[in-house]
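INFO  loader      accepted 1 record
INFO  loader      residues=183
INFO  predictor   begin
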Amino acid sequence: MRERMLAGDLYLADDPQIAADSERAMSLSHRLNTLDPNDGTARREVLTELLGAFGEGSDIRPPFRCDLGYRTTIGARVFVNFNLVCLDVAPVTIGDDVLIGPNVQLLTPTHPVEPGPRRDKWEAAQPITIGDNVWLGGGVTVCPGVTIGENTVVGAGSVVTRDLPANVVAVGNPARVLRHIDE
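INFO  predictor   done
INFO  writer      dumping tokens
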């Protein structure tokens, strides 16, 4: 089932390998979330162990929650404010110089719409990609399969259900382009 998950296919999450990966992420997240908040060196060490990549000059303010950790890559000079939830069953790629406000959710999991397979606990996931120099305001939710283009700003509380191009301001539920950004 883990191989199916990694391939992006439907899978059942009761696989022992998936459980071990999840337990690892929960343990490291717990360690991160209970560190002295002024110990940036220890926080960086835990995040480097937890995540697939954690760029130079980046910071995540705890609390932070993720499903697996190793499926999330974060570029350089990224700032993540309090309470990021990153359900990274599929890859979550965050570019350089990204700003993420408090209470943001990056959600890759999907479930079948049909009641039978959903009741049988089948699930899948679609990747999320956030381009360089993006700003996600507080409380933004990014749904499975979404790509947000570079330099884009997503207003607080928005729900991003489909791709957003580069160089725009988008707001709302669902998020819609409000205007283009000129350099």
